UniProtKB/TrEMBL annotation:
Residue intervals passing through the bilayer: 46-68, 80-99, 132-151
Descriptive protein name: DUF3429 domain-containing protein
Domain of life, per lineage: Bacteria
Organism placement in taxonomy: Bacteria, Pseudomonadati, Pseudomonadota, Alphaproteobacteria, Rhodobacterales
UniProt key word Membrane: yes
Membrane in keyword set: yes
Keyword terms: Membrane, Transmembrane, Transmembrane helix
Length: 152
């Protein structure tokens, strides 16, 4: 296991803040009410994590696209094609209410982790990439789980 450089680690963990805030304001009604009053509905409860999750899946498509630029020939073509999947997943699969959106986001991040592993296996990602991605994917899934488990 290669050590994750401090900047990507800290920035990656900071990127979990909106997900954690969404989980907290979903699970703690008093904090949720305060957030709703002060920050508004977009930054409260399931909505902050769900909208931010879509943004991050689209962002990660761009990261994978960047990795694909390091490849050549058929591997590059495959990398470019695979890199658009997270953004398309977020666009087509996240909707229909908070529970299904959260379930589909968790599935999208799990699929992204598989793509990360492929790009890493092809030698296109930094050696520490998978360690960071496992940590962040677990954090995202844990934070989206309360919404996914809310029920109808």
């Amino acid at each position: 296991m290669t050590r994750i450089p401090l900047a990507p680690l800290l920035l990656g963990l900071a990127g979990l803040i909106p997900f954690a805030w969404g989980a907290l304001t979903t699970l703690a009604p008093q904090i949720g009410l305060w957030s709703l009053e002060i920050l508004g509905g977009r930054f409260t409860g399931p909505y902050v994590g769900l909208s931010y999750g879509q943004v991050i899946l689209a962002f990660m498509s761009g990261v994978l696209w960047g990795f694909a630029t390091k490849a050549e020939g058929a591997r590059a073509a495959a990398g470019y094609a695979l890199s658009v999947i997270p953004a398309l997943w977020a666009f087509f699969m996240v909707g229909g209410g908070p529970v299904s959106a959260a379930v589909n986001l968790i599935a999208g991040f799990a699929g992204l982790l598989a793509l990360d592993a492929a790009f890493s296996g092809w030698g296109l990602a930094p050696p520490w990439w998978m360690t960071l991605r496992v940590i962040l994917t677990a954090g995202v899934a844990l934070c989206l789980a309360p919404v996914a488990l809310m029920g109808g």
